[in-house]
Design a protein that fits this description.
Layout lengths: L5 H12 L12 H10 L5 E5 L6 H7 L4 E6 L2 H11 L7 E4 L11 E7 L8 H14 E12 L6 E2 L2 E2 L5 H8 L3 E12 L5 E11 L1
Parallel strand pairs: 1-2, 1-4, 2-3, 4-5
Antiparallel strand pairs: 5-9, 6-7, 8-9
Helix pairs in contact: 1-4
The protein binds S-adenosylmethionine (SAM).
Length: 205
């Protein structure tokens, strides 16, 4: 993928398709909410990595979570989410950045990523991601990472992905992250196709 402009790709996707004409759209991110509620409290500092235009931030805000950050490469995606949230958007911190280059300004209690990490097909990008995760997550904090499962699609949004199970993800994250749980999840796309995901929960040791 040398010469590939990742940011331009994602800008174009959200500019053309908006929020809900993309395969990953969910009305309600139920599994993410369940997993976050199992490890977080309303005071937890939560960051959604590659959050895009996801409604996770709306749902968390609605449940009284007060310290929310959304990071995404695509300004268009973030604008869609902000517009939808209206006045509530001011209570959220928004970061337009490539996670592999971002310097975390603070530490977080919960790191959530649904379908961003699996796009990192280059070893150097995965290393950079894990460096940021290690720096950003406080000791005892939790990382919830959803990717296509081993029997999930090989591509998404026209791009190749790397598929994982919990053990493979744990090996990738290294010894600073203890795997607590892996759940399989079948996502139904807006046009009715089923995509197999896995969501793994790690504790930063
Ligand atoms: C498949 S979408 C999932 C969006 C959102 N997590 C959801 O569940 O609706 C992948 C998202 O990751 C973002 N993304 C891809 N690579 C990224 C990177 N290197 N840094 C930050 N965001 C990235 C894209 O802009 C896109 O919003």
């Amino acid at each position: 993928m040398s010469g590939f402009d990742r940011q331009a790709h994602w800008q174009q996707v959200y500019s053309e398709k908006g929020e809900n004409r993309v395969s990953w759209f969910q009305e309600r991110p139920t599994i993410s909410l369940e997993l976050i509620e199992a490890v977080g409290t309303p005071n937890s500092a939560i960051i959604d990595i590659g959050g895009g235009a996801s409604r996770l931030v709306d749902a968390l805000d609605g449940k009284g979570y007060r310290d929310l950050t959304v990071l995404d490469l695509s300004e268009s995606a973030v604008s869609i989410a902000k517009l939808r949230l209206g006045q509530r958007a001011a209570a959220v911190k928004w970061i337009v950045a490539d996670v592999t280059q971002w310097q975390p300004p603070t530490s977080y209690d919960v790191w959530h990523d649904r379908a961003a990490f699996h796009f990192l097909t280059e070893e150097s990008d995965r290393i950079a991601y894990v460096e940021r995760l290690t720096k950003a997550l406080r000791s005892g904090g939790h990382a919830i990472i959803g990717t296509f499962a081993l029997d999930g699609p090989e591509r998404c949004s026209g791009l190749p992905v790397v598929r994982y199970d919990g053990a493979q993800l744990a090996a990738r994250l290294g010894p600073s992250f203890a795997l607590l749980e892996m759940r399989r999840h079948d996502h139904q796309t807006p046009w009715g196709a089923i995509q197999h995901f896995q969501f793994s929960v790690f504790e930063r040791v």
